[in-house]
Amino acid sequence: MSIQRLHRLDLKEIAPLAQESRDEGFRHITRMTDEYESGTNRFDQPGEALFAARDRERIIGICGLNQDPYSMTAGVGRVRRLYVSKSYRRHGVARSLMEQVILEANRHYSVLVLKTDHPIADRFYDSLGFISIGDDDNVSHMLRLDGRSGSRF
Fold it and tell me: No. of H helices and E strands in the chain?
């Protein structure tokens, strides 16, 4: 398995992962491909990135980093669209993707946020050092990044 930064998302290549996520009842990978195709989010703004996990040539996981569109404060990044193929879960793929996202975020942001309502994802993000936030409609978890200062949002 390898982690690769994508500078262009091949919609045909990501289609099997998007289909698998839909079959599981998740819509976020389909939203990602729709937004990418329409140009509304291509992970190409300053401080943004998209990472893929591969097993040989096959994409088995994906995770993005955006400027947080909900924050009124500069220096806030947002984890977007983390998904790992079901057969590759519990093998460190999500952790490896998140390590790359956090490394990249650390170069641009003082805070990294995300939104999830899935209990397994909640525990996963807690294990990475994120703090659960209970009073925000747009954020469920927050991580202050090393070497940076800044207040919450």
Answer: 4, 7
> One-letter amino acid identity for 43?
F
CB of 104 closer than 8 Å to CB of 74: no
Q: Is 112 exposed, middle or buried (0-12, 13-18, 19+ CB in 10 A)?
A: buried
CA–CA separation, 21 vs 4, rounded Å? Answer: 20
Separation between Cα atoms, residue 90 and residue 134, nearest integer Å = 27
pLDDT single digits (tens) 118-145: 999 999 999 999 999 988 899 999 999 9
- Report the SS3 class of residue 50: strand
User: Over the stretch 22-33, which tens digit does the pLDDT of each residue have?
Assistant: 999 999 999 999
In 107-148, where does DSSP find H-type helix? 119-127
* Cα 103 from Cα 22, distance rounded (Å): 29
DSSP 56-86: TTEEEEEEEEEE-TT-SSTTEEEEEEEEE-G
